[in-house]
């Protein structure tokens, strides 16, 4: 593949593209759509586990889940699921409606974080830790693109973000930033790992998702 073609293949996409598997509503459960959703959430969870095992810093919500895990003695998969459930409760006053994808997000991401932690070795080597973090961010981007394009409902955190934006009128970017910073600081106070991996995630996750959406858009257009 020529360099120009390679660049075009990985060009980021600015919006969520229409796909052949997009649902008509949040409980439109065609088999292929559910499979793509589950695969996306599994990839997301495995990517998050690579960030954890990198030992150089986690994504903000995982910093919180890890800190909560250390304080309670629960597995990090459990604390991830518990955190998601509590975030989902915020949807009630915001009048957000969960979908099949929302509930699947809570269960499968937590499950595959635990699976990944048992598969991938924790890194003591800093350079290998950076590799783990970068691969993890790429996988989170791919997983996000797959489950978002199914149209079966946002994850608990995304729904809270859009709900707060709608109720308060504050820009989505500012709402998300406020949530991420608050969660990150709380997780750090609880003992979660904060470091270069956290910074890499903040800088790269947006492009990782956009590139993955672009690849899906071009492949489904064929």
From TrEMBL:
The chain crosses the membrane at residues 30-52, 72-92, 99-120, 126-152, 173-190, 196-217. Keywords: Membrane, Transmembrane, Transmembrane helix. This is Unannotated protein.
């Amino acid at each position: 593949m020529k360099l120009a073609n390679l660049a075009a293949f990985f060009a980021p996409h600015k919006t969520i593209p229409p796909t052949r598997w997009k649902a008509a509503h949040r409980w439109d459960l065609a088999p292929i759509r559910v499979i793509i959703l589950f695969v996306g959430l599994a990839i997301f969870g495995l990517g998050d586990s690579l960030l954890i095992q990198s030992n150089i810093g986690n994504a903000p919500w995982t910093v919180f889940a890890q800190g909560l895990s250390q304080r309670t003695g629960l597995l990090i998969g459990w604390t991830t699921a518990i955190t998601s459930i509590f975030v989902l409760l915020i949807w009630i006053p915001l009048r957000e409606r969960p979908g099949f994808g929302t509930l699947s997000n809570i269960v499968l991401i937590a499950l595959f974080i635990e699976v990944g932690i048992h598969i991938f070795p924790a890194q003591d080597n800093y350079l290998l830790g950076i590799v783990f973090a970068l691969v993890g961010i790429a996988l989170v981007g791919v997983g996000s693109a797959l489950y978002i394009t199914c149209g079966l409902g946002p994850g608990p955190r995304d729904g809270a973000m859009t709900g707060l934006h709608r109720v308060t009128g504050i820009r989505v970017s500012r709402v998300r930033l406020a949530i991420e910073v608050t969660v990150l600081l709380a997780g750090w106070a609880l003992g979660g790992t904060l470091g270069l991996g956290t910074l890499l995630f903040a800088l790269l996750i947006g492009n990782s998702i956009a590139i993955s959406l672009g690849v899906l858009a071009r492949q489904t257009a064929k």
